Amino acid sequence: MTTPFGGPARTAPGLPNLPTPPTGWPVGSYATYEEAQRAVDHLADSDFPVRDVTIVGVDLMLVERVIGRLTWGRVLISGAASGAWFGLFVGLLLSLFSTSANPLGPILVGLASGLLFGLVFAAVGYGASRGRRDFTSASQMVAGRYDVLCQPRNAEKARELLAKLAMGPNPSGQNG
């Protein structure tokens, strides 16, 4: 198997190389990933062989949270700033190989041209959208619930440990 860039793929030992559905028996179901992670952490703290455990997100959803309104001013400032950073980087590289006595010249040229190109490309991109997407957002994949699966050889032990976790802290005050 190779990666999209042509090199050999590296997977964790024992994991399949191709996408495969998870296997195992359900030992717990949780509303949030944090709860499922806490359950697996409890198993690990109890010296359980967690290599047999898998957390599976069920009922996946793509959630796009709107961050703010997109305006010409924000687009141009953002484009200019990202262009300036790239131009500064190129200018610094050019100054390393410059035979000029003043290394500041290539840096300023790189900075100015990066700023200009960033500004122009941002304006062209935003103008081409014609107002169809005048907001910024962040996307995240979330699940409706998170199931914890365990290989059959240890599933009963996992259920017992997770039942103890669900009952709350030990009366003696000790964890796991």
Account of the protein in words:
This protein is α+β, with helices and mostly antiparallel strands. The chain has two domains: 25-66 and 141-167, Alpha-Beta Plaits (2-Layer Sandwich), CATH 3.30.70; 71-133, no CATH class. It contains four helices and three strands, in the order βαβααβα. It has helices at residues 33-45, 72-97, 104-129, 155-167, and strands at 25-30, 53-69, 135-150. It has a three-stranded antiparallel sheet with strand order 1-3-2. Helix 2 (72-97) runs antiparallel to helix 3. It is elongated, with a radius of gyration of 26 Å. The relative contact order is 0.23. The model is unreliable at 171-176 (pLDDT under 50).
Could you give the topology of this structure?
Elements: E1 25-30, H1 33-45, E2 53-69, H2 72-97, H3 104-129, E3 135-150, H4 155-167
Antiparallel strand pairs: 1-3, 2-3
Helix pairs in contact: 2-3
Quick structural summary:
This protein has 176 residues and is α+β, with helices and mostly antiparallel strands. 44% of the residues lie in helices and 22% in strands.
What's the number of extended β-strand segments? 3
Provide the number of structural domains. 2
Return the CATH class of the largest domain: Alpha Beta
Tell the overall outline. elongated
pLDDT average, as an integer?
Answer: 87
Biggest sheet layout: 3 strands, antiparallel
CATH fold node name of the largest domain: Alpha-Beta Plaits
Could you list some keywords that capture this structure?
22% strand; 3 strands; 2 domains; 176 residues; alpha+beta; 44% helix; 3-stranded antiparallel β-sheet
